Each structure stands twice: as structure tokens, then as C-alpha cells.
Amino acid sequence: MNRNTRIVLAIVVLAAGAGYGWHRWQQVSAAPAAAPATPPSAAVSTVLPQQAQAPITVEGYGDLLPAKVESVNFARPGILAALRVVAGQHVRQGDAVAQLSADPAAEASYRQARSALTLAEGELQRMRSLFALQLATASQVQTAEKAAADARSNLDAQEKLGGAMPASEGRAPFDGVVLALNAAQGDRLAAGAPVLQIGRTDRLKLNLGVEPAQRQRIRQGQPVALAPLQSLAGSGSLAASPDAAAPPAQGRVASIQDMVDARTQLLNVTVEVSPQADAALVPGMRLRGAIQVGQQQGWKLPRSAVLSDEKGGYVFQVQQGKARRLAVQSLLETGADVVVDGPLAADRPVVSQGNYELTDGMAVRKARP
């Protein structure tokens, strides 16, 4: 094969390769572009937010006490012979709660006064007999009369001091509970010294401690929601309760002190507990109270719709098929619902189920029923 022939063959091969390459490029250019990958989406359930009213409250803590407390005492001195109750015991009106026996010294003084009166009356009779016989003067009779009168007055005084009464009973003035014992059996008591204290259980009050800065917002007669501290475990809201049929006990502001307590540095607000309050409330319980000082507009949502992390509470609201995270603040929790404050739109659904796996801006779709 000569040189010219080889050149011609090379040109033919190059031309064929170029033609094949141009043909493949045309095929690739004419092929349709691949469809972009579909972004991931989450199946969720949603609800529309509903406007609702939530109370604006001032919260505090305090101890539950009887509204009326009386002391049991004795009008005369003596020895506490018997103490028939213990602290915390329930008593009924008229129940014997303590017994006082006479002081031995008072008994001795009474016997001496009685003997002195007997002697004085005998001497008066003798003086009158002698006067009748003109053996005594009128002055002597008057002296004997005065001595008898003084002896009778002394005996009356000793009777009032209990010298003539061997024992007496102290009784409960009303139905209630024994709050404290101020004396022990065998103690020598002065007249009027308190033996024990009884408080009424049908009328209760709460001394609620609140921050002094809230004083101007509190008014007499405002409603107060009360709940024992143990019922609030794991909940940041007073009204939250797994049992919607057991709402917090109610009360009203009875009075407000205009002086800060030196021990707690709080302002004491006296709350009268409603007679229809939960019977489980007993004196001595520590309660949390929320004084309703106004109303606030919010959004009512299922409890499952509201999540929380280190940044606080939040919800996901659907906008154009994507979940948008919005910060909210819980105002009120009642049963399965919660009222929140936040920048929600009334016409955009809020994710109530499937929200734990969402991130801000993630595509969502409606879950199948």
C-alpha cells in the first residue's frame, strides 16, 4: 500500500468517527431532561386554631387555715387533770376536750375561808346575845357584823377561784379540728390561760403571698383558682389536670395587706375559700393560688399540637404545603386543650399529630384517616 492510499484511509476513518460523534451528541441533546428529585414530606394531621379567652393571673403560694379559731380555757386557775384530744383531731361542738381540777392551794384557801365565815357568824350570834343582855355594846355588835360580812365576801371570792369546784370540763365551742395544744396534762394553769386551739373546718381561708409589684392589679372580690401543690407535679399551669372533671377549688380575695411581710418579703392576700370547694382541702395544706386580674385573647389548640424545647413552646402551622415553626406561650391548660399566645393565622391549619418529626420549612401532606 503506497503512501497516498494510507492518507486516504486515515481521512476516511477520521471522517467516520467525527460523524458518529456528531450523531451521538445530537441524540443526547434531543433527549428530555431528567425530572428533579421529589423532596421528602411528612404525613400529618391538622386542626384550625380557634380564638379563646384565657385569664390573666397573679400567682402565689400560701397555707390553708381555718377562717375562725378559738382557744379553750378556764376562768379559774387549777391543774390540767386531763387532755382528751391531740393535734389534728376532729371534734364536735360540746365535746369534752380537757378537764381542770382545783389547785390544792385554792382548795385550802376555800376551806379556810369557810371556817372563818363559820367562826365569824358564831361570834356575831354571841355578840347579839350579849347585846340583848346589855353585856355588849352596839359597837361590838357592828364589829362582829363587819367581820362576818368580810368572811362571807372572802368565801365568795374563793368559790369563784374554783376552790369549791373539784373539777370542771372544757368543751369544744363548735365543730372543727384541734390546731394546737398550748398545755400538757399536769400543768398548773392561770385563769384564762389557753389550753388548746380549735379551728372551724367549714370555713377556710388562705394567706397567699404575692410579689409586692403586683399590688395595684389585685382587687377585693377577684376570683382565685386554688390547687394543692402535689397536683401540679409535672405541670407548669395551675389549671392543668389530667382529670377534667376535677377543676381547681375556687375562692375570692377578701383583703389585701398594704405591708410587706418581713419574713417572706411578700405581700399577703387573704383569700376566702368557697364552701363548695373540694372536701380534700384540709387546714395546713400548702396551696398555689392564681388571682384572676383580667382576660387575654389566645388560640385554643389540642395539647398535642404544642411542643417545647430549650427555646420554649412552639407549634407548626402549615403554609403553602410546608410546616412553619412559630413560637407560642402557654396561657391556660384545661384537660386535652391548651390556650396559647402567638402569631398564628386563623385560616392556616396547625399540625396536631406527626409534629415531632418536623423541621421548619419541611413539606407536609395530609395523613390518611
Structure write-up:
The chain has 369 residues and is α+β, with helices and mostly antiparallel strands. The protein folds into four domains: 42-53 and 297-366, conserved putative lor/sdh protein from methanococcus maripaludis s2 fold; 58-65 and 201-230 and 246-296, Beta Barrel (Elongation Factor Tu (Ef-tu), domain 3), CATH 2.40.30; 69-101 and 173-198, OB fold (Dihydrolipoamide Acetyltransferase, E2P) (Beta Barrel); 104-161, Helix Hairpins (Orthogonal Bundle). It is 22% helix and 40% strand. The protein has helices spanning 3-30, 104-132, 138-160, and strands spanning 41-47, 50-66, 69-73, 78-83, 90-91, 96-101, 167-171, 176-181, 188-189, 194-199, 204-210, 223-228, 249-260, 267-273, 286-302, 307-309, 312-319, 322-327, 329-334, 337-341, 350-353, 363-366. Strands 2-11-14-13-12-15 form a six-stranded antiparallel beta barrel. Strands 3-10-8-5 form a four-stranded antiparallel β-sheet, with no helix packed on it. A hairpin with a 2-residue loop joins strand 17 and strand 18. The chain is rod-shaped, with a radius of gyration of 46 Å. The two termini are 82 Å apart. Mean pLDDT is 83; it is low at 232-246.
